[in-house]
């Protein structure tokens, strides 16, 4: 196992990239002094990394983690107050919304590796990832209501992960949730001791990287598309996806390998 990258507290750029294992990319938010708040610069850097990963067939899974004492404190409020005005606010939230949608649209599954606090847009980032593992000491919140700014954009991702009442509880109270509570309401998948966090995230990524990349891409896209459809439409759409999937070379190989009691050899087609 490759250890997490060693980071200097003042290191740049705002997002670091490494490959801990073949087929796996780890992106590390790297504004530790600002608790990895989502400045326009950090969001642009993360967007650029995701855009590059989107087209790279050698990458099978992505981990998003963070440097310093916490995962992400949300938007950079100092930057926001230094640039007041409708035009800047609209551009900022459009940039963030596109970033979150890029994670959902990425062919490769994205795993959030969470330690410390993930609040506001940081909690939105966790909710936007396909999977999430967190340290026992991690905390989650959408605390905008406490400063007169309802977490409306984080609400979009949050409400697509947890039930309405749990989402509204977080949004209306702004209170911090402990990791075990976040797991129980479906915001994250697993809670582990902080010392086991890297291995837990890598374990998910390693398992996914061993699957057919075509099958994973097909399934991820279909999962998010069918969620927004009425039941009958969702079944019609999923049946078409299954048919196309069955005609793929990897499906033939996977079935033949299962019948022949051997390991499959994926071709990604």
UniProtKB/TrEMBL annotation:
Q: Which UniProt keywords apply?
A: Fatty acid metabolism, Lipid metabolism, Lyase, Transit peptide
Q: Where is this region: Disordered?
A: 1-20
The membrane spanning regions, by residue number, are none
Q: Does the keyword Transit peptide apply?
A: yes
Q: Which family does it belong to?
A: Belongs to the enoyl-CoA hydratase/isomerase family.
Q: What Pfam families does the entry give?
A: ECH_1 (PF00378)
The protein's GO terms of the molecular function aspect are: enoyl-CoA hydratase activity
**UniProt xrefs under PANTHER family:** ENOYL-COA HYDRATASE DOMAIN-CONTAINING PROTEIN 3, MITOCHONDRIAL, PTHR43602
Q: Which CDD domains match?
A: crotonase-like
Function text: May play a role in fatty acid biosynthesis and insulin sensitivity.
- Whether Lyase counts among this entry's keywords is yes
Name of this protein: Enoyl-CoA hydratase domain-containing protein 3, mitochondrial
Its source organism is Ferrovibrio xuzhouensis
Query: According to the lineage, what is the superkingdom?
Result: Bacteria
